[in-house]
Amino acid sequence: MTLLAIRGLVKRYGTTTVLDGVDLDVARGEVVVVIGASGSGKTTLLRCVNALVPYDTGSITLDGTEMAFTAPNSGVRRSDRALARIRADTGMVFQQFNLFPHLSALDNVTLGLRITRGMKRAEAEARGEHWLKRVGLADRMHHLPSALSGGQQQRVGIARAVAMEPKLLLLDEITSALDPELVGEVLDVVRTLAAEGMTMLVVTHEMGFARDAGHRLVFMDAGRIAESGLPREVLANPQSDRLKKFLRRIELRTE
Questions:
Q1: Phi/psi of residue 4, each to 5°?
Q2: Is 3 within 8 Å of 62 (Cβ atoms)?
Q3: What is the number of alpha carbons within 13 Å of residue 76 lying toward its C-beta?
């Protein structure tokens, strides 16, 4: 039951190859966690899947639909309008919160529902209130982002993404901008979504989360998938020297 299929994905910036022939499948209900050093291609991979960055060659299909091109390797890119419709099937939560500072938490969540999904305000607000309550912000939904902590803002970002009912949720280092004491509250929300069957592709440096919540762990190095497997097995017994070195650096950083 493959939901996301990536084949031979290549992305270049000038003469620099950032993604070098990536192949990856994500099944429905699966949580795939991607780890790797800075510059390994993790964020670019997510941005290609979300059609925020056009890839050069290869194929990305979500639920059988090619993302950026009219057909795999056709070279014919979709129109902006077509991309917007397809992108609505993926929800993305970024490192930075990317909330509109002049809108309340509730309005940040409902804006996409009204514009992209075409919902009437009352229906959008009912769904937005539901998800803000789910992420523990029932008493903060009418506050501006400036009145929220970093962890609360990131939970608004998660509520905004899942309220759109995407087929796939993309999480890009969503705890990297948070103070350490706020990390747990955000990851608890993600763990709950994972337990409820949300399909996710997660880039993170939180190894405990990767081990406990992920169904599969992917290690990227130099734009390629260098190692993949069950999280506990990969982390306990890394096969490549590059992954061993990466994990040692993570351990030193967290000691």
A1: -115, 130
A2: yes
A3: 4
82-115 residue pLDDT tens:
888 888 899 999 988 889 999 999 999 999 999 9
Pairwise CA distance, residues 124 & 120, whole Å = 6
Helices 105-115 and 121-134: crossing angle in degrees, nearest 10, is 130
What residue spans of 164-240 are helical by DSSP H? 180-195, 207-213, 231-236
Closest among 53, 44, 51, 54 to 22, alpha carbons compared? 44
The distance of Cα 185 from the centroid of its chain, to the nearest Å, equals: 17
* Cβ contact 101:146 at 8 Å: yes
In order of 18, 106, 154, the CA distances from 136 in angstroms are 38, 13, 12
**Under 8 Å between Cβ of 223 and 23:** no
Phi-psi sector, 213: left (phi>0), alpha (psi -120 to 50), beta: alpha
Contacts of 61 (CB under 8 A, 6+ apart): 4, 5, 67, 72
Task: Find, among 222, 235, 194, the residue nearest to 26 by Cα.
Answer: 194
pTM of structure: 0.92
